[in-house]
């Protein structure tokens, strides 16, 4: 076994090892020697051995076997061993290790040691790695030290108390009186510790609000008088203490008027007197600004604070610009005008090299966009978008969209901007931009020609940006005829032929860069073009035979059949593939919006698909069936293949809601299904016509195969609501039909209508008795409706 | 509150690691590597502040060593920047023109200095005179 070498030698040996393997070899030998030495409990060189072990640990090698040695050395009486022992404890032990509990007693003894350095070691270790139990045990000791000892120990004890309070919140009250008394100390270190203790630990204790005058006094003495050379940093006396006091004042004054008043003068003084040429001065100024903005300060002071931030923005030092922007972000909503003054500088920061500065500048710029500066800001933002780092692109794009939506000076500008964004950063925009843009385009009917020309040109240049391609396909599908017209007021005329258009769509379909959604768009667009620009069915077929994917194949088969098999092709097809109506903006309906784009191709053909080639009379009923979502007997459609019908069934329920939105004529009133038995469904719809009148409609539906006869209905409401109603009709409800669904309450076709002059406050109840005969047997039932939701 | 203090050289070797928060050993190793990766790619054109997980790192480069302090997001950046400078000045005083090798061979003394100046995650000593 080689003799143990001194620490310096070992370090030199490790450093001179040329490869990782050699180094490991040296370390393993040393660790073996150290382990052997530990076992021997050799008195002389224990500290050296442990120091060596700690060095090895710093390099990243395991050193757990030293933990017990640390514990033993802490308990020894020699200072050098204690020192290394405590250092080892701080490096090797932490709360999770069991060995840490063993040192609690040693620490306790050392805290009352005569030598202050030993005491300080113990305090330090406790503050570094003290667990909650240790803290609880030793808290009274710390409290004692806080009161009666010299300032060297008090400093450390104060921070140790901070650690204890962070670990165990309840002990905060224990230290409160001691903390208060410490504020009267002269020693800066002690003051510092006391301020931190109050900030982190005990500021919630009520008596702390009375410390505000004391703190103000201390600050004043720091800033105005007292040049103490040992605490001076570049001309500012003890900036660290100043910063901490300001922070504490911020917390105390946050919700308290009186405290804020007491600090106003001081803050103004600090803000004006502090030298801002060096970083230290700026640090203090920054903290002052944060405090002013957080407490209930008077407006003059706030203006001063914002001006300081403005000055920071013009500073050459990037750090200071960065923190200025961080703070401005917080107040941009409340003090908007003040921040607007610095718009130019902020926009310049967009071009900075540092990515975090760019991000701050971007967020501030987006917050500062307003109706008056939208054009110039947008130019800057678009320029930024083309050169910004990729992680900021989607944020920028969505910010631009929101700003454009809110403040667009003209429709054309809006469309131009959105197109620009799509061409620059198309891949990073969010999903709902495509339907939003489509909705915007349909709303501006005078610009359809211009838009479709621009989009066509964009499509020709680049088909990799999916959102752009989707919008372009949609527009070409809708406004293809305008494209062929060739001349357009806003752009230069260009001759586009049918084949060009179809070729463009075919390229999109075939390209490997197109996602399935894009291909669906292209397919539907081609479909729509069959009525608009050409009747060339064979050309369509050729296109439809290309493309891949199960979902798309379903579409394609379906489109093909639609083209071939619909009996009166031109009329019906034209009706089905008509121009889309202007889409209403549905802000709250996320599934309506986001599904809207993708299910549009499916919605479009549904009215066509479900209308059977036979009686057009049935169309209305079937449409209504679809709306109601009833699973009623599906009209057999001999002309359509089963796959197509399957497609409808799948999508009807999902898109039923969308269909409602699209047709837009129906306001869904709240419905209540009150009775469902024996094939009779009774639903109730109520609507408040005015403050005093409530209209209730009862509808009965028969879903059995046979007729129901002798149907009678009676309803009663509480006497508080007088009602008038026509006498209920006795009707036979035939099978397969709804009993005269009528939402307008004007005709007598409804089964039962009651007008209740019913003031709002009255809680409406209704009892309904129905009797009917079905398949020869008579039924009689009574239903009570207790609550009408939404009233 | 300071979460940890790291002194690393450009190659990634740790010269000092002081933790004020509970981490496992492998977490500590990962943190060291991440901090090194984040800090060494930045040059003079960047700010001295980096957002790191849900904290932020305030760092400064002195010759071949990076002095990094990881603090909470709400702390005053400039004050900690000054704290780093204060600490380096004290080291300079203590070792008489300190260089990296001083930190290597006298690592336990460096720890003592750190413990004098920072405690429980806060700046403790603000004056530069040796015995206080």
UniProtKB/TrEMBL annotation, chain A:
<feature type="region of interest" description="Disordered">
    <location>
        <begin position="721"/>
        <end position="742"/>
    </location>
</feature>
<comment type="similarity">
    <text>Belongs to the adaptor complexes large subunit family.</text>
</comment>
<dbReference type="InterPro" id="IPR017107">
    <property type="entry name" value="AP1_complex_gsu"/>
</dbReference>
<protein>
    <recommendedName>
        <fullName>AP-1 complex subunit gamma</fullName>
    </recommendedName>
</protein>
<dbReference type="GO" id="GO:0006886">
    <property type="term" value="P:intracellular protein transport"/>
</dbReference>
<dbReference type="InterPro" id="IPR011989">
    <property type="entry name" value="ARM-like"/>
</dbReference>
<dbReference type="Pfam" id="PF01602">
    <property type="entry name" value="Adaptin_N"/>
</dbReference>
<keyword id="KW-0333">Golgi apparatus</keyword>
<dbReference type="GO" id="GO:0030121">
    <property type="term" value="C:AP-1 adaptor complex"/>
</dbReference>
<keyword id="KW-0472">Membrane</keyword>
<keyword id="KW-0653">Protein transport</keyword>
<dbReference type="InterPro" id="IPR013041">
    <property type="entry name" value="Clathrin_app_Ig-like_sf"/>
</dbReference>
<feature type="domain" description="GAE">
    <location>
        <begin position="667"/>
        <end position="789"/>
    </location>
</feature>
<dbReference type="InterPro" id="IPR002553">
    <property type="entry name" value="Clathrin/coatomer_adapt-like_N"/>
</dbReference>
<dbReference type="Pfam" id="PF02883">
    <property type="entry name" value="Alpha_adaptinC2"/>
</dbReference>
<dbReference type="InterPro" id="IPR008153">
    <property type="entry name" value="GAE_dom"/>
</dbReference>
<feature type="compositionally biased region" description="Basic and acidic residues">
    <location>
        <begin position="731"/>
        <end position="741"/>
    </location>
</feature>
<dbReference type="InterPro" id="IPR016024">
    <property type="entry name" value="ARM-type_fold"/>
</dbReference>
<dbReference type="InterPro" id="IPR050840">
    <property type="entry name" value="Adaptor_Complx_Large_Subunit"/>
</dbReference>
<keyword id="KW-0968">Cytoplasmic vesicle</keyword>
<keyword id="KW-0813">Transport</keyword>
<dbReference type="GO" id="GO:0016192">
    <property type="term" value="P:vesicle-mediated transport"/>
</dbReference>
TrEMBL record, chain B:
<dbReference type="InterPro" id="IPR016635">
    <property type="entry name" value="AP_complex_ssu"/>
</dbReference>
<dbReference type="InterPro" id="IPR000804">
    <property type="entry name" value="Clathrin_sm-chain_CS"/>
</dbReference>
<dbReference type="GO" id="GO:0072583">
    <property type="term" value="P:clathrin-dependent endocytosis"/>
</dbReference>
<feature type="domain" description="AP complex mu/sigma subunit">
    <location>
        <begin position="1"/>
        <end position="129"/>
    </location>
</feature>
<keyword id="KW-0254">Endocytosis</keyword>
<keyword id="KW-0472">Membrane</keyword>
<protein>
    <recommendedName>
        <fullName>AP complex subunit sigma</fullName>
    </recommendedName>
</protein>
<dbReference type="InterPro" id="IPR011012">
    <property type="entry name" value="Longin-like_dom_sf"/>
</dbReference>
<comment type="similarity">
    <text>Belongs to the adaptor complexes small subunit family.</text>
</comment>
<dbReference type="InterPro" id="IPR027156">
    <property type="entry name" value="APS2"/>
</dbReference>
<comment type="subunit">
    <text>Adaptor protein complex 2 (AP-2) is a heterotetramer composed of two large adaptins (alpha-type subunit AP2A1 or AP2A2 and beta-type subunit AP2B1), a medium adaptin (mu-type subunit AP2M1) and a small adaptin (sigma-type subunit AP2S1). Interacts with CCDC32; the interaction is direct and mediates association of CCDC32 with adaptor protein complex 2 (AP-2).</text>
</comment>
<dbReference type="GO" id="GO:0006886">
    <property type="term" value="P:intracellular protein transport"/>
</dbReference>
<keyword id="KW-0653">Protein transport</keyword>
<keyword id="KW-0168">Coated pit</keyword>
<dbReference type="GO" id="GO:0035615">
    <property type="term" value="F:clathrin adaptor activity"/>
</dbReference>
<dbReference type="GO" id="GO:0030122">
    <property type="term" value="C:AP-2 adaptor complex"/>
</dbReference>
<dbReference type="InterPro" id="IPR022775">
    <property type="entry name" value="AP_mu_sigma_su"/>
</dbReference>
<keyword id="KW-0813">Transport</keyword>
<dbReference type="Pfam" id="PF01217">
    <property type="entry name" value="Clat_adaptor_s"/>
</dbReference>
<keyword id="KW-1003">Cell membrane</keyword>
């Amino acid at each position: 076994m080689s003799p143990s070498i001194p620490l310096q030698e070992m370090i030199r040996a490790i450093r001179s090892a040329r490869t990782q393997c050699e180094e490991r070899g040296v370390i393993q030998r040393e660790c073996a020697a150290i382990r052997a030495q530990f076992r021997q409990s050799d008195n002389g060189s224990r500290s050296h051995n442990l120091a060596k072990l700690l060095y090895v640990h710093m390099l990243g090698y395991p050193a757990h076997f030293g933990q017990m040695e640390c514990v033993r050395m802490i308990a020894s009486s020699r200072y050098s061993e204690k020192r290394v022992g405590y250092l080892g404890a701080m490096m090797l032990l932490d709360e999770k290790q069991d060995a840490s509990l063993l040192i609690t007693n040693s620490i306790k003894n050392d805290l009352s040691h005569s030598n202050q350095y030993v005491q300080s070691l113990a305090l330090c270790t406790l503050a570094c790695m003290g667990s909650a139990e240790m803290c609880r045990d030793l808290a009274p000791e710390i409290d004692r030290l806080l009161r009666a000892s010299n300032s060297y120990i008090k400093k450390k004890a104060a921070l140790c108390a901070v650690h204890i309070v962070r670990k165990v919140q309840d002990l905060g009250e224990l230290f409160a009186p001691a903390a208060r008394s410490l504020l009267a100390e002269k020693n800066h270190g002690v003051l510092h510790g006391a301020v931190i203790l109050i900030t982190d630990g005990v500021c919630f204790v009520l008596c702390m609000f009375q410390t505000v005058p004391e703190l103000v006094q201390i600050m004043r003495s720091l800033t105005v008088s007292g040049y103490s050379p040992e605490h001076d940093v570049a001309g500012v006396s003890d900036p660290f203490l100043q910063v901490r006091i300001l922070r504490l004042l911020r917390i105390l004054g946050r919700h308290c008027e009186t405290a804020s008043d007491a600090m106003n003068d001081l803050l103004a003084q600090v803000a004006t007197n502090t030298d801002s040429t060096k970083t230290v001065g700026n640090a203090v100024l920054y903290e002052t600004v944060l405090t002013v903005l957080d407490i209930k300060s008077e407006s003059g002071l706030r203006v001063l604070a914002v001006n300081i931030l403005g000055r920071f923005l013009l500073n050459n030092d990037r750090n200071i610009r960065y923190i200025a922007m961080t703070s401005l972000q917080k107040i941009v909503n409340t003090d908007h005008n003040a921040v607007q003054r610095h718009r130019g500088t902020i926009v310049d920061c967009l071009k900075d090299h540092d990515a975090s500065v760019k991000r701050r500048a971007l967020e501030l710029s987006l917050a500062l966009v307003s109706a008056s500066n939208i054009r110039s800001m947008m130019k800057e933002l678009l320029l930024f978008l083309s050169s910004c780092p990729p992680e900021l692109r989607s944020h920028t794009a969505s910010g631009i969209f929101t700003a454009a939506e809110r403040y667009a000076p003209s429709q054309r500008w809006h469309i131009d901007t959105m197109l620009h964004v799509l061409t620059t950063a198309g891949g990073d925009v969010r999903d709902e931009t495509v339907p939003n843009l489509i909705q915007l385009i349909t709303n501006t009917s005078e610009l359809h020609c211009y838009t479709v020309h621009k989009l066509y040109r964009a499509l020709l240049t680049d088909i990799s940006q999916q959102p752009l391609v989707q919008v372009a396909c949609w527009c070409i599908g809708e406004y293809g005829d305008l494209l062929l017209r060739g001349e357009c007021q806003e752009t230069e005329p260009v001759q586009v032929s049918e084949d060009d258009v179809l070729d463009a769509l075919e390229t999109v379909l075939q390209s490997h860069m197109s996602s399935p959604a894009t291909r669906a768009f292209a397919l539907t667009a081609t479909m729509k073009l069959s009525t608009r620009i050409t009747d060339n069915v064979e050309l369509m077929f050729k296109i439809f035979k290309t493309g891949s994917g199960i979902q798309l194949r379903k579409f394609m088969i379906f489109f093909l059949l639609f083209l071939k098999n619909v009996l009166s092709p031109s009329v019906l097809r034209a009706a089905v593939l008509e121009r889309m109506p202007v889409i209403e903006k549905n802000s709250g309906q996320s599934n309506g919006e986001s599904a809207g784009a993708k299910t549009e191709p499916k919605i479009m053909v549904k009215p066509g698909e479900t209308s059977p080639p036979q009686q057009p009379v049935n169309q209305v009923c079937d449409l209504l069936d679809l709306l109601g979502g009833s699973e009623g007997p599906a009209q057999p459609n001999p002309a359509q293949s089963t796959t197509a019908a399957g497609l409808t069934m799948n999508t009807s329920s999902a898109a039923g809601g969308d269909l409602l939105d699209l047709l837009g004529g129906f306001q869904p009133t709240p419905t209540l299904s009150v009775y469902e038995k024996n094939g009779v469904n009774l639903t109730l719809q109520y609507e408040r016509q005015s403050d005093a009148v409530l209209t209730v409609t009862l509808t009965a539906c028969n879903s059995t195969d046979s007729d129901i006869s002798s149907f009678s209905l009676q309803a009663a409401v509480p006497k508080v609501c007088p009602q008038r109603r026509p006498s209920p009709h006795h009707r036979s409800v035939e099978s397969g039909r709804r009993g005269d669904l009528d939402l307008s309450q004007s005709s007598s076709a409804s089964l039962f209508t009651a007008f209740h002059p019913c003031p709002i406050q009255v809680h409406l109840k209704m009892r309904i008795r129905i009797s009917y005969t079905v398949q020869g047997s008579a039924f009689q039932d009574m239903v009570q409706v207790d609550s009408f939701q939404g009233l | 509150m300071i979460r940890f203090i790291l002194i690393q050289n450009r190659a990634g070797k740790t010269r000092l690691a002081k933790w004020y928060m509970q981490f496992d050993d492998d977490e500590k190793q990962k943190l060291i590597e991440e901090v090194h990766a984040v800090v060494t790619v930045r040059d003079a054109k960047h700010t001295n502040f980096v957002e790191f997980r849900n904290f932020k790192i305030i760092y400064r480069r002195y010759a071949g060593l990076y002095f990094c302090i990881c603090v909470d997001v709400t702390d005053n950046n400039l004050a900690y920047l000054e704290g780093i400078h204060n600490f380096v000045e004290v080291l300079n005083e203590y070792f008489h023109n300190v260089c990296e090798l001083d930190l290597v061979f006298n690592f336990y003394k460096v720890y003592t200095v750190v413990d004098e100046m920072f405690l429980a995650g806060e700046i403790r000593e603000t004056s530069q005179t040796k015995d206080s």
